[in-house]
Design a protein that fits this description.
GO cellular component, one term: high-density lipoprotein particle
Number of domains: 1
Shape: globular
GO molecular function, one term: lipid transporter activity
Radius of gyration: 15 Å
Subcellular location: Secreted
Distance between the termini: 13 Å
Pfam families: ApoM
CATH topology: Lipocalin
CATH architecture: Beta Barrel
CATH class: Mainly Beta
Family: Belongs to the calycin superfamily. Lipocalin family. Highly divergent.
Helix content: 10-25%
Length: about 120
């Protein structure tokens, strides 16, 4: 996550591996809203995002809410974050009324994130 082009923007970049093995670069731009803890996502006016504090190094926890759904996401710079990070995330999501916990298998090499 990095500062965006304006003081009220945050930019999150990732390289996501698809099931066919290809790495797809992704970029999300979040806009800070004055007087609110919600972030709006550029290009997704129906979606709101909250960022949660985490003691996990290199990690970020998000809650995304849209029309009829909410999901919690844990992103980390490492493809294998410490188990304590995953446990902290699972504890937080269970307190926030999450019904299911999915752990995506991390058995492939990490995608390389190219710099812009």
């Amino acid at each position: 996550m990095a500062a965006g082009s304006a003081p009220t923007q945050l930019q999150l970049s990732a390289a996501v591996r698809t099931k066919n093995g290809f790495c797809v670069p992704r970029k999300w731009i979040y806009h800070l809203t004055e007087g609110s803890t919600d972030l709006s996502t550029e290009g997704r006016p129906d979606m709101k995002t909250e960022i949660f504090a985490s003691s996990c190094p290199g990690g970020i926890m998000l809650k995304e809410m849209g029309q009829g759904y909410q999901r919690f996401l844990l992103y980390n710079r490492s493809p294998h974050p410490p188990e304590t990070c995953v446990e902290e995330f699972q504890a937080l999501t269970s307190c926030l009324d999450s019904g299911a916990f999915l752990l995506i298998p991390r058995n492939q090499e990490a995608c390389e994130l190219s710099s812009d």
